[in-house]
Amino acid sequence: MLTQSLTHQLPPKWRAGLHVFETIDSTNSEAQRRLDSGEQSPLLLLARAQTAGRGRHARRFESPARTGLYWTLVMAASAQLPLNLITPAAGVALHAAVAKVLAVDTQLKWVNDLLKNDRKVAGILTEVVPAQPRRIMVGVGVNFTKDPRRPEAAAGQQIGSLLDSIPDAATQAALVAQFVARLDGLLVRPTRIMPEFRAAAAWLGQPVSLSEPGHVAKGRLAGFADNGALILETEHGRQQFQDGTLRRQ
Q1: Residue 159 near residue 119 (C-beta atoms within 8 A)
Q2: CA angle 242, 162, 175 (to 5 degrees)
Q3: Is the pLDDT of residue 56 over 70?
Q4: Which of 39, 41, 106, 87 has the alpha carbon at shortest distance from 187?
Q5: CA distance linking residue 204 with residue 206, whole number of Å
Q6: What is the band of 242 on the pLDDT scale with cuts at 50, 70, 90?
């Protein structure tokens, strides 16, 4: 049912490369295997459960069955689009899709989390495939409902859920289709990405800390640059960061 609904709702260019699984180790890992075997992009792989889901910085992304949906897009990497804008674009697309399809209000926590009531309800993992032609994998994991197998917190972030019950297959397909269409639109008009990210961003103006390997910066979240960087107002002045784990103080 999910496959049929997706086939009907997806933009045409994504239909031929659609693959749906009940359970898989990781949709990003499966996407890499398919690329290694010669399969061409665009690809869209979805699973109802992952046994080895991955997040940023090699963290585990809990992906139990019957509580969420997990998918990966593989697309060509445009030479005109800065790679630092891919993850913010995916966040904006997911925020918009959740609002339109599920009527749930969320915020974007830089750089790759979707929050509801300050709890993480979705995560994004962007990976570059270095082979030629260069391609991008965008992995998304969405927590529809609570599950006792999922921890209450991960990497210092409280975990939440979007809904009280898991939506039907048609609604799940609509969410993915809206995400894909919205992301496609943003990537061809990249000047829209950061203004829309700012409009949905969490913790603006609030005291935060940003952890990088071997360094922690503290200050007030002042905003986001057009290149996707976070702007932190510190005791040493304004500083920009392209990576790190953001926490509210």
Answers
A1: yes
A2: 80
A3: no
A4: 87
A5: 5
A6: very high
Place of tokens 């995560």: 123
Q: What strands lie across the sheet with 18-24, from one edge to the other?
A: 18-24, 43-50, 68-76, 135-143, 119-129, 113-116, 107-109
Listed in sequence order, the DSSP H helices in the chain are 2-9, 27-36, 86-97, 169-188, 193-200
Residues 111, 133: Cα–Cα separation, whole Å = 26
| Tokens at 205, concatenated | 């103006």
pLDDT at 7 over 80: yes
The strand pairing partners of 248, in sequence order, are 208
Instruction: Please name each of the domains of the chain with its CATH number.
Output: 2-200 (3.30.930.10), 207-248 (2.30.30.100)
Burial 37-54 (b: 16+ CB within 10 A, else e): eeeebbbbbbbbbbeebb
Parallel, antiparallel or unpaired: strands 18-24 and 43-50? parallel
* pTM, entire model: 0.94
Tokens 């990537």 -> residue: 187
Q: At what angle do helices 193-200 and 86-97 cross, to 10 degrees?
A: 60
Write the CB contacts of 102 (distance below 8 Å, at least 6 apart in sequence). 162, 163, 167, 171, 175
Determine the residue type at 64: P
State both tokens at 94. 């997911």
Task: Please count the other Cβ atoms lying within 10 Å of the Cβ belonging to residue 105.
Answer: 11
| Angle, CA 240 vertex, CA 239 and CA 242 arms, to 5° | 150
CA distance 181 to 90: 11
> If we measure between CA atoms, which residue out of 142, 143, 139 comes closest to residue 183?
139
Q: Cα–Cα distance between 101 and 113 in angstroms, integer?
A: 19
**CA distance from start to end of the chain:** 44
CA 22 – CA 47 distance, rounded (Å): 5
